[in-house]
Amino acid sequence: MSGKILVRATVTTLALLLAACGGDDSSSPLAGSGNGSGGNGSGDGSGQPTDSNAASIQLITDSPQIGTAGTDTARITAIVKSSGGVVLSDVPVQFSSPTATINVINNTTDDTGRAAADVSAQGSPENRQITISASSGTASSSINLGVSGTGLSLSGPASVPLNQNTTFTAKLTDSSGNPIAGETIRIESSQNNSISPASVQSSASGSANFVYNASSAGDDTLTVRAFSGAGLVTAVSDISVSGEDFEFVTPTQGQEVLLNTPQTIEVSWSINGSPVADGSEVQFSATRGQFTPANGIALTSGGIASIQIQSDDAGLSPIAASTTNGPTIQTSVEFVASEVNSINLQATKTQISPNQSTEITASVRDPNDNFVKNSTINFSLQDNTGGQLSSSVATTNSQGQAQVTYFSGTSTSAKDGITVTASHANGTSDTLALTVGGQALRITLGTGNEISEPNTTTYSQPWTAIVNDANGNAAANQLVELSVTPISYVKGKYRPPVESDGEPTGRWIFEPAVSCPSEDINNNGSLDTGEDTNANGTLEPDSSATTPTTATTSASGTADFNLTYLQSECSWVTVELTAVTRVGGTESDATQRFSLPCLADDLAYNENNPVTPAPGTSSPYGEAADCSISD
């Protein structure tokens, strides 16, 4: 069956319906919707270009979705053909959209029958769907794009004391993580506990604070919302309200702890303002590290319970403290390695054209293959072509990575004629060779707004690679190498819509908890030391999307292929699709990153007859908002 694509959003993406073949009467097929019976060059008084013999227009996009930040664009290509299917050159094409910003690249078709425009989402931070139309004479077509990435987060403690003011912070950001200011954020408590104020305006930093005060003990849920309708974004926090005062004294949230160094963990526990009886038991647990004593149990003295933890394994470790029939609280520490033993230097591209750039990444490990954080790495360059590095120094992050950017000059180099060296003060270093060469071919990746369902377990999404020479002419019989790599995965769930909250009815509501980067840091498909972030013995996400190994361009310079993936992975996994073509020793490539879409019919919700959505009601990677655990 075929139907409609859904590119979802509640917190991080938009619930976007893109029409597919076999859809309803208002659907917009991949090649465009209506097209005339063929223009004759006469005007029709509509203001549309009429100097055209176009019979049909096919629209394709190099990206099925763009961000709400308005900084990225989608290239819309219109292919204009006669009634006999022949591409038409020198034909005027008019692009338009009521809700998007359009930058026309060329509004007259070239020798391959193509006109093009770049589309961005400037003007509104809301998640939404936009329609772009193209017309030539009496022929016209339209295509839908998803505008997504605006999200709302809620931060604050998971356990709060009774009858005390506790501050929570909501933050509204666009697809680039930029703050969204001046928007109303609505707050509510499922137990009708006091919230002041009940709605807040996001500040210049995108954040807004409010005060929560519970008048009765028990469980509560705080929900914050911004925007409405299809653009609605929400964030939810479950809260335990206790009459007991139970909190961490040390360490602070996210505190860094050196490997193999004991760290004291201390909690205070009182009831009605008085310390609990000495000898009261507190159970500690952590996802990484070893406790002293090993059973993780500490007894109170003067209302204070203390224990030590240390680890020889780097990474984030949530730490929980709980009491029998009492409250549970949680904090986290990050165990970090400090001894630099090896540096591995890589580039996103080792062959680039003049006036281009490539990211240079140094991955730093200690003698036990732990990633080293907060280490200063020096970068140096040997280059006689005028290229330069963005910086001579960078500091490693939690993944042990220090990054700079190489910008090529205006001239070419010999093969491997440019070297970049990354080094540490202790003498550890690594060197990478780059080549700046001419680009004989250009390659573009694009897809339409259809997916199909070959069987009950997989989806198939059509893609097209267009290969042109330097003059824009179609490059026929060119071998295009294809690959698809999982980049990140989402933990979360789908839930039924709440009509009274203004949520769209008729479909399951997507509630992501957190987006986690792929654990396969070096993309070798093997579980290496330091890569198993959630310590479950496997790499996440699964490699569940495939393409043909190669495709060959036709006389028009196009190569069509299908991306096939498991229905259970749709909406949960983001992939990077790459197409590479080579000629005369020079490599050209194109990449697209996107979330695997779901068929809209497979996300439909009927209150009287609910059916589990294709990707399942829970992410296969868990629901917890924590990448370091597998729950």
Please render the helix and strand layout as text.
Blueprint: E1 5-7, E2 16-18, E3 56-61, E4 65-67, E5 74-81, E6 94-96, E7 101-106, E8 114-120, E9 128-136, E10 139-148, E11 151-155, E12 159-161, E13 166-173, E14 184-189, E15 194-196, E16 199-201, E17 207-213, E18 218-226, E19 233-242, E20 244-250, E21 255-258, E22 263-271, E23 274-275, E24 281-286, E25 290-292, E26 297-299, E27 304-310, E28 315-322, E29 328-336, E30 342-347, E31 351-352, E32 357-365, E33 376-382, E34 388-389, E35 393-395, E36 401-407, E37 418-423, E38 429-436, E39 441-447, E40 458-469, E41 479-495, E42 509-517, E43 545-546, E44 550-552, E45 558-566, E46 573-583, E47 586-595, E48 598-599
Parallel strand pairs: 4-10, 12-19, 21-29, 31-38
Antiparallel strand pairs: 1-2, 1-48, 3-5, 5-8, 6-9, 7-8, 9-10, 11-13, 13-17, 14-16, 14-18, 15-17, 18-19, 20-22, 22-23, 22-27, 24-26, 24-28, 25-27, 28-29, 30-32, 32-36, 33-35, 33-37, 34-36, 37-38, 39-40, 40-45, 41-42, 41-44, 41-46, 43-45, 46-47
Would you summarize the structure shown here?
The protein is mainly beta. Helices cover 0% and strands 48% of the residues.
Helix content: under 10%
Helix-strand makeup class: mainly beta
Question: Helix count?
Answer: 0
- N→C terminal distance: 34 Å
Low-confidence residue ranges: 1-50
Shape: globular
Largest sheet: 5 strands, mixed
Strand element count: 48
Q: What is the average of the pLDDT values?
A: 86
Spatially, the strands of the biggest sheet line up as 12-19-18-14-16
